[in-house]
Design a protein that fits this description.
Elements: H1 11-15, H2 23-40, H3 42-50, H4 56-75, H5 77-88
Helix pairs in contact: 2-3, 3-4
């Protein structure tokens, strides 16, 4: 057993002046990240909706995702994201 095993998890962070944040500070960060994914990786949204179980709702959602993806391709962010993926050689799973 090392001498550091008896120190509680996060003690060093607290001693360095770092404090845990509240969940309400995480929500804006999460919202911005999801919005950026919707704008730049709209093809991923289309793939996700295509994998949903068949229903009227998932069909409508898939149609909406396709319209969104076409809009993002026309506007440019989805094309930029696709070009970056092609450049670095990332294949979707």
């Amino acid at each position: 057993m090392s001498p550091r095993d008896d120190i509680a998890l996060g003690t060093h962070d607290l001693e360095a002046g770092m404090r845990p944040s509240h969940i309400r500070s995480f929500v804006p960060v999460m919202t911005i990240a999801v919005a950026l994914l919707f704008v730049f990786n709209s093809q991923g949204l289309v793939r996700w909706t295509q994998n949903l179980p068949p229903s009227r709702f998932s069909l409508a959602l898939s149609d909406a995702a396709n319209v969104w993806h076409e809009a993002m391709m026309a506007a440019g962010p989805a094309r930029l994201f696709a070009a970056i993926k092609d450049t670095i050689g990332v294949e979707p799973r």
